[in-house]
Structures are given as C-alpha cells and as structure tokens.
Amino acid sequence: MQRFAELLDRLVYTTARNAKLKLLEDYFRTTPDPDRGWALAALTDGLPLRLPLRKTLQTILEPHVDPLLYRLSRDYVGDTAETVSLLWPDARDNAPPPQISEVVAEVSSASSREFPRVLEKLLDRLDVKERFALLKLLSGALRVGVSSRLAKTAIAQAFGRTVEEIEEAWHAVSPPYGDMFAWLEGRAERPDPGRKATFRPVMLAHPIEESDWQSFAPDEVAAEWKWDGIRVQLCARPGDVRLFSRAGDDVSGAFPDIVQAFAHTQGILDGELLVLRDGAVASFNDLQQRLNRKSVTGKMLQDYPAHIRLYDILFDSAEDIRSLTFIERRARLEAWYERFRPSLADVSALVPFLAFSDLESKWQAARESGIEGLMLKRKDSPYLAGRPKGYWYKWKRAALTIDCVLMYAQRGSGKRSSYYSDYTFGVWKTQDELVPVGKAYSGFTDEELLKLDRWIRTNTIERFGPVRSVRPGLVLEIAFDAVQPSSRHKSGVALRFPRVHRIRWDKPVHEAETLDAVRALLPS
Amino acid sequence: MRSRPESWLYPTERGLYCEPGQFHIDPHLTVDRAVITHGHGDHARSGHRAVLATAETVEIMKVRYGADCAQSFTTANGGQMINGVSVRLVPAGHILGSAQIVLDWQGTRVVVSGDYKRKADPTCAPFELVTCDLFVTEATFGLPVFRHEPADKEARRLVASLAANPERTHLLGAYNLGKCQRMIALAREADYDRPIYLHGGLRNLCDLYVRLGIDLGDLRNVMDSTPAELKGALVLCPPSALSDRWSRRLADPLTCYASGWMRVKGRARQHGVELPLVVSDHCDWPELLQTIAETGAEEIWVTHGREDALVHQIGLMGKRGRALALVGFEDEGD
Questions:
Q1: Tell me, what CATH number does B181's domain have?
Q2: Which of A20, A136, A152, A226 is flagged as catalytic?
Q3: Binary contact (B244, A418; C-beta < 8 A)
Q4: Statement to judge: residues B122 and B172 lie in one domain
Q5: CB-nearest partner of B276 from A13, A66, A82
Q6: Cross-strand pairs, A345
Q7: B131 and B17 co-located in one domain
Q8: Which of B259, B277, B295 is the last residue of a domain?
Q9: What is the ipTM of this complex?
C-alpha cells in the first residue's frame, strides 16, 4: 500500500507522459506480486470489487466530523476520496499498513454489514497518502491521468515487450495477473486466450505523404472509403460475441443489437461502427449518442441504429489468417459474409481505379456525409499489429478552413505552462457578438507561440485563473474536418478536429466568418 | 464592572477600532494612530500618521514602503498605555516581528492575534499564549481538512529531491516575507549548504532578516548567475513568478510550492506544482481549536479566511463565535 500510495501521489503531480511512464515502469518492475497486479487492475479495468462506498463513508465519518464541516470541506476539496483521506484522524493504530492484497482479501470477504468496520480498521492503519490511495482503489476510478492504454504501455516497456503483445495477452488473464508477470519475467509461457472471444491488436494506417506515391504502382494497392465512425473489432465465438474498440476496450454493452446480429457467426472481423439510416451514414454526432454507455434503452436502439461496415477478417471461424495477403483476406471476407449474412452489417466496397489521377478526382469529390477520405492498402500486406510502416495509408479529404476570432487563451501544461497556448475562438453571431465554436492547441510553431503569447498578454481584458479573455483583435484561420451540432457551445455548433492553420496577423477581425456561414456547413 | 468588549472594540470601514484608545489595529485605510501586528501587506499599510509596532515590523515596513511610510513610529517595548488602554505586543509566531495585541481596559482583556502559528519557526519568536476574555483569531485554514505537515520533514523532502534530481533546477514558490526566509532557514537546518538563488523580488527582505540576525547562508541573485550555476540549484521566487515568463530562463525546472494550500491536490495542480510542500505560517485546524480552547476566552471573533466553518465549530465548543466582517484582508494569505 505504501508504494502504491507513493506512486499515485507522484502521478497526481506529474503531467509529462514520459515521466508518468517512468514512474509506472519503476513501480511494476520493482513491486512484488500480487500487489503490482492489483495496482495494474486498478489502473486499467478496476478492481473486481463492488461496494457501497459512498454510503459507508458517510456512516463511518459521522463520529469524527460534524456534517456541516464535512460538507464545507467536501465543497472546498471537490473530491470525496480526497476529503475523507484528509479528514480521517491520523495514526490511531500502530499496526503496519496493509498490502493491497490484504485489502482486497479483507474487503471481498466482508459482508455488507461488516464492511464499515473493515474499512474503518484499514483507514486507521494508514497515513494521509495511503488513505487517499485506499479510497481511490475502492472507488474504482483512480483519476490520476493514467489511461488503461498508458498503464499497458508501461508494462510493455518495463519488460521489453510491445503494447500489442500485452493487449493480446490481456484477455487471457485476470487480476492480479500473476501468469502475465510470470510470462513477462520469462518464468512461464505466454498466457493463452483459449476459448474466450478475444481481442487481437488492430492494424493502423499512416497518413500518406507526398513521397509515398513513388513507392507503389496503381495496381499494387487497393482503395476503399474511409468511413467516419469508430474503428471496431468484432469477435464471435459460439455463445460469446464481443465488440471491442481499437484500443481493446469492450464496448459490447452499448451495442446489444450488433451482438445479436452476429450471434450465429464465428470469426474475428475488422470494421467501422456507424449509425445507418435507410442505407445512409448518419453524422458522427449521432454515433456519439450510442458511445460510452454501459447499457442502452430500446428507444436509443431505434433512434440510432448501429451498423458495421466490414473492412477485413483476422480469423475465419477459428482459423488465424492474419498472415495471408490483403487480397486473399478480402476474398475470405466476402465468402465469410455470404456464408453468415449477418444483419446490421455489410462489406465496405473497394473503390475501383486505374490511375492515381482517377483516384484523386474521387477523393476530391468525397465530402458527402460519412466519408472521411480514402484508404490505400498494399494488396500484399499481411494483417500486422500496430502501425507498421509501408502497408496502409490514410488519405483524408482536404480540411475545411474558416477565419475565426481569438476569444480566450488558457495556459498550457508541462513545458507550456508559462505560455498561453490553448485557444478558444469564435465567429460573429451578430455584427458585434462573437460566439465560441471550438478550441485549438496545435498547428503553430514555437516561434509563433511566443508571438501569440505576447499578443495575448498585451490584449487581455479579464483574467479568470489560468484563462484570459482578450479583445477581439486577432484572426486565426482554423482548419477542421467537419462541423457538428453541439449543446456545449453557445453557438450550437462545434468544429471537429480543429487546429490553427495560419495566424492572420494582417486580417481585420470584422472579416472573420459569421455563425450563419458555419451553420451552413452542418451535415444535412 | 467589566465592560462588554463590543462596546469599545468594533470594526469600522477603516479596520478594527479601539474607541477609548483611539487607535485602529491593522487598518487597511490610513488612520491617525495604527497598531500593527506584522509586516504583511494586508496588515501593514503605508500612510498612517503614528504607528506602533515591534522593532522588526517597523524595519520591515521601512524596507517595503520607504523610511517615511508613516509620520512617526513607536517601537513597542513591553506594555504601554494609550489613552488609558493598556496595549502589550506579544509574539505571535507568524513571521519575524509578528505580534498579538493584548488590550486591557476596565477589567476586560482582549487578544487580537493577527496571523499566528503554534509550530516552531527558526526565523521568529514562538507564539506566547495569553489567556483572555475575548480572542480575535484568523481562519485562513479554517476547515478540518487542513493539517500541516511538520515543516522540517517537508524541508528534508525538498533537499532529498534536490539530491535525486541533480539536472533540474528546483524552483520554489514562497511568499517574499516570512515563508521565503523560513524555507531557506529550514533547508539550512536540513544540511543544505550550497548557494541558494533568489528572484529579484526576494532580495531586500532576505537582507533585512540577515541584518536582524537570522542566518540564511550563501544567498545569490538569479539575475547575476549563469545557466550552468542554476542547473540543479535551489531557486526561490514569489508564487506569482512560478508559471510566469520569468521561469523560462531555467532549465527543465521542477516546480515546488511551500504553502498550507498544498494539502489539497487540486490547489497544487492548479499552480502546476510538481513538488508540493505543506508548510504554512498560519495555524492549521487543530492548532486553531487548541489555541481557542487554551486562551480560555468565552467569546471568539473570527476575522478572515473560512469564518463560516470556524464559527460553527466554536459553537460546537460551547463558546460564542462571531464572524467579523473586516474588509481588506487577503483570503489567500500564506
């Protein structure tokens, strides 16, 4: 518990990704089993404990803290676990702090009636940092700025593996992952996913560069549309169908319709998850309504019908065909689809072309709803984990740009903490009212950042903590992928993937775009 | 017959006023006669006609505002009578020269504590407890979540981090009066004997402390130093400079901040702090409660900070608590 508490404390105050990785790697390399495994579980999928934590904390705090003082404290601190860790009396018990494994054992064996007493006794053995760590562990959400992916990356780096290898083994293991650490330390075979429907790391593409065009002839690559949904992997075994995001998160719970549609199939497929109405791809915003949910209502299923457009096949029934070429797999995919005919699915069509010029005119025309651009895949490419060079390319349609006015600037973090580097920009709603439409952090050089920072400091109207509002006086040409409706912005719209394209020091602000013009770009 | 204190001591628009003595305590607007608890800007202001304060506080005011920042200074020396009110300045343990103002009039004793702390501090005299009928207290850290760490332990953490990260300049944000000198003295007590580098805004008061007999070791100016010297060094600056342009000259700085607020993670993160040090020159919650109990006062007035929580707690302790609405004090003190 002490080491884990120290780790969390350091992570809370560390913003740089590499520094976080270093802290995590050190921890995983030097902490014994099973504690490091429980810590890993807490950082990824959560500890397998279900507790009435909030209610219990109320009960056990009552003798120690007046309710009004608790409320004032909680309001000030802003986080229940932290508030309780700060309020709990220090060192009432001389027993040494427990290991995480001891915590897990005690808590999971306690009945709900015993739990308050167990928790009290644990808190009594801990100092303030350890109490924070314990309560975060039990609350199931650490919120220390470490994603599940980052934790797995740290494990991979700590033991000289790739994160894809960890992802692949991940579904064969469970907390505290003793067999995985045994494999990583060369003491055992790699854990076998066996009969479970298991995620396999996906293959990703590079943005195409000018020089790439020389490296293949038109007949060496296949082209397909790049659909604007989310990349998913569908794993089907008899009696077990799961849908994973490209990072390996199980999102099946939000898509029971898809799971049902593939119940009779077997294999592992790669595709794009979309909302499809009458054969037309709905906006990404519609798809977002279905994401990040543990379960969905019947109305959601009806209003936002999900669909998978299949790109590739990794396992044909139980046969691993990742080493076949793209063209061979494509034939297997089409045959697989004919065999099972799952509803709510189709195969993404190849885009025929003879010369690249031919393809370019198709790419230029691609601004209809649901298409983000084109994919080019070498016909001889095997299905490889990660983002291997020289096989798959994404050719995104050209970005749109509009001229916006800088409204607010916020201090960055880490290396940028002394610079105003995060920009909220807006367009004209009326002749003299600006409304924000987005926020951009990138697209400028260090030199330009210095200049922007200076401009912001001399044109500040008001300061709100780390944020400054500035007088309307600077036009930013913003590049973005699409306009989507937004309830979070006062303007009712938001730009997707905005970045600063150019800084228009020269341009008068009244020549910036109007809200009506931006609205006209909304998908119909 | 004993007098009710609120009949002769009360807040006015200029500050807390003692009517029979005809003086204000820590007034935030200019007055004829001011009694000053200590040198922080929200307590000691320039422009009063006559000022009564400790010798150290007078020196601090002169360094900050100029030798003519008041028409006349009286250095408190034991007790004195002002228009029939006995006025005694007793160490408050907050910063060098800080004092509680002990008022005796017609059989009633009031202690106006100013800012104070109970923990040891190598740069100032320790707090002296004076029993009284009415105790006037601050409430900067008036929430039960505030418990400061032992300052020497925090200083050792700082020195250990300096040793563990020899490539990184440790940029420590600390108030220019009191906290800055205390952190330097604590680092010296923790056997840190390398030169310590100062932001320009800290120099004058450090020099004054040294002149008044507080040993701070080898102090140098950041301005006069080369980047190579600053690598891995301890640099002190006012908190406002932590994330300002000034810090860009330092190589890969490790940001530290010494303050009671660092107890709360959100506050540390808000300042982009990597190494928060929970060191304060104010009482934490247990010390506030301990002091209130030990003064024996039946009535407690709470000046600035988190009055609502402390007044509530005073009620739970069976005493009369009252929030004094004094303007001009900084909530963010520390």
A1: 3.40.50
A2: A226
A3: yes
A4: no
A5: A13
A6: A308
A7: yes
A8: B277
A9: 0.92
CB contact under 8 A, A86 and B264: yes
pLDDT tens for each residue of A444-498 = 888 899 899 989 988 989 888 778 999 999 999 999 988 888 887 888 999 988 9
Does the beta-carbon distance from A465 to B270 stay under 8 Å? Answer: yes
Statement to judge: residues B117 and B192 lie in one domain: no
DSSP B262-276: GGSHHHHHHTT-SEE
Which of chain B's residues have a Cβ under 8 Å away from the Cβ of A86? 144-147, 263-264
Does the residue B45 lie in any domain?
yes
Indicate whether B329 belongs to any domain: no
The sign of the dihedral angle between the CA atoms of A319, A321, A323, A324 is positive
Put simply, whether B308 touches A (Cβ < 8 Å) is: yes
- What average pLDDT is seen over chain B? 93
CB contact under 8 A, B143 and A76: yes
Both B98 and B35 in a single domain?
A: yes
Shared domain check, B203 and B295: no
Query: Taking CB atoms and an 8 Å cutoff, what residues of chain A touch B143?
Result: 69, 72-73, 76
Q: For residue B228, what are the contacts with CB-CB under 8 A and spacing of at least 6?
A: none
| pLDDT score recorded for residue B326 | 65
Please indicate whether residue A226 is annotated as part of the active site.
yes
B82 lies in the same domain as B199 = no
Closest approach of chain A CAs to the CA of B171, in angstroms?
13
**Cβ proximity of B61 and B36 under 8 Å:** yes
How many domains, in total, are found in chain B?
2
CB count within 10 Å of CB B245 equals 13
Residues of A with CB under 8 A from a CB of B: 12-15, 65-66, 68-69, 72-73, 76-79, 82-83, 86-87, 90, 128, 411, 413, 417-418, 465-466
Asked if B265 lies within 8 A of A411 by C-beta distance, the reply is: no
**Does the pLDDT value for residue B150 go beyond 90?**
yes
**pLDDT value at B1 more than 60:** no
B67: which DSSP letter? T
Shared domain for B110 and B134, answered yes or no, is: yes
Contact residues, chain B, for A65 at CB < 8 Å? 144
Domains and CATH numbers, chain A: 2-139 (1.10.3260.10), 206-396 (3.30.470.30), 400-519 (2.40.50.140)
The residue-averaged pLDDT of B24-50 equals 95
Q: What is the pLDDT of residue B327?
A: 58
Q: How far is CA A397 from CA A440, A519, B6, in A?
A: 20, 20, 76
Compute CA B190 distance to the chain's CA centroid, rounded to the nearest angstrom.
22
Residue of B nearest to A145 (CA): B269
Report d(CA B329, CA B211) in Å as an integer.
29
pLDDT per residue over A134-189, tens digit each? 999 998 778 888 988 999 999 999 999 999 889 888 878 889 999 999 999 999 98
Residue B331 lies in a domain: no
Residue of B nearest to A8 (CA): B265
User: Hey, what amino acid is at A340?
Assistant: F
Kindly state whether residues B161 and B38 are assigned to the same domain: no
Provide the domain limits for residue B313.
5-145+282-323
Min Cα–Cα distance to chain A from B308, Å: 9
Which among B98, B104, B143, B112 is positioned nearest to B281, based on CA atoms? B98
The answer to whether residue B275 neighbours chain A at the CB level (below 8 Å) is: yes
End-to-end CA separation in angstroms for chain A:
55
Q: Average per-residue pLDDT in chain A?
A: 90
Both tokens of residue B20? 């029979």
Nearest-Cα distance to chain B for A241, in Å, is 42
In this structure, is residue B254 part of a structural domain?
yes
At B55, which CATH number? 3.60.15.10
Count Cβ–Cβ pairs < 8 Å, chain A vs chain B. Answer: 67
Instruction: Give the span between the Cα atoms of B66 and B72, in whole angstroms.
Output: 13
B259 interfaces chain A, CB cutoff of 8 Å: no
When CB atoms are compared, the residue of B266, B275, B316 closest to A66 is: B316
Q: Do B273 and A13 touch (CB under 8 A)?
A: yes
C-alpha span between B118 and B114 (Å, rounded): 13
The answer, as to whether pTM is greater than 0.90, is: no
